[in-house]
Write a structure and sequence with these properties.
With 203 residues, the protein is α+β, with helices and mostly antiparallel strands. The protein has one domain: outer membrane lipoprotein receptor (LolB), chain A (Clam), CATH 2.50.20. The protein is 23% helix and 42% strand. The chain has a 12-stranded mixed β-sheet, with helices on one face. The protein is globular, with a radius of gyration of 20 Å. The relative contact order is 0.19. The N terminus is likely disordered. Keywords: Lipoprotein, Signal. It comes from Hoylesella shahii DSM 15611 = JCM 12083. This is Outer membrane lipoprotein-sorting protein. Pfam families: LolA_2.
């Protein structure tokens, strides 16, 4: 009898492990397909709504191409050319220049997850209607963004990214996603367009 109980326990553990591995694999496949769509060679554009407890709700548009992005809201315009970031604040007419890390980029670019999920995170997935909800949970030692939820539609386009940072959740809802052929110049600040702005170098 004891042997049968132990055998059933072993089989249950094996079945759970196999199921989890399958879920991880399926979640990764969904994000692989999403990354391929988001990472279109020519670029892409979308509208977004960012909300969290401190900032409230902010609407804007974002353009992406590879690891470059250009985001525009009523409160700020941000350019990132893959290395340098410029943040223009119309309220003060100032441009802050910085070299952000991946976590800092994620604060403005909801598509950062297309690279982050590839290492340092455990993946799991649920179906929400016809959508896929992928949960990214940071592995030990990777605590910058400990959790991310990515909601992807049936055609593998992202609909929502929810990330935890500093104990607080930020939700970015994405709409009107479309591929565009974008010039690399779009992702760098041009001082000629803001001749009176004060440039503050924080690097």
């Amino acid at each position: 009898m004891l042997k049968k109980v132990l055998l059933l326990m072993c089989l249950s553990i094996f079945a759970f492990s196999a199921s989890k591995a399958q879920t991880d694999k399926e979640a990764r496949q969904v994000l692989d397909k999403t990354a391929a769509i988001v990472g279109n060679k020519g670029g892409a554009q979308a509208s977004f709504k960012l909300s969290n407890g401190k900032l409230g709700a902010i609407n804007g548009t974002i353009s992406i191409k590879g690891n470059k992005f250009y985001a525009r809201t009523a409160k700020a315009t941000v350019w990132f050319n893959g290395k340098t970031q410029w943040s223009y604040m119309p309220s003060t007419n100032e441009v802050n220049v910085s070299t952000p890390n991946e976590i800092q980029q994620a604060a403005m670019n909801p598509y950062t997850f297309i690279n982050m999920y590839k290492s340092g995170y455990k993946l799991s997935m649920n179906k929400v209607g016809s959508d896929y909800q992928v949960h990214l949970e940071a592995e030990k030692g990777n605590k910058g963004i400990p959790e991310i939820y990515v909601l992807v539609d049936a055609s593998y386009k992202p609909k929502q990214v929810k990330m935890k940072r500093g104990g607080e959740w930020t939700t970015i809802t994405i709409s009107n996603f479309q591929h565009k052929k974008l010039s690399d110049n779009l992702f760098s600040f041009n001082s000629k367009d803001f001749p009176t702005a004060e440039v503050i170098d924080l690097r």
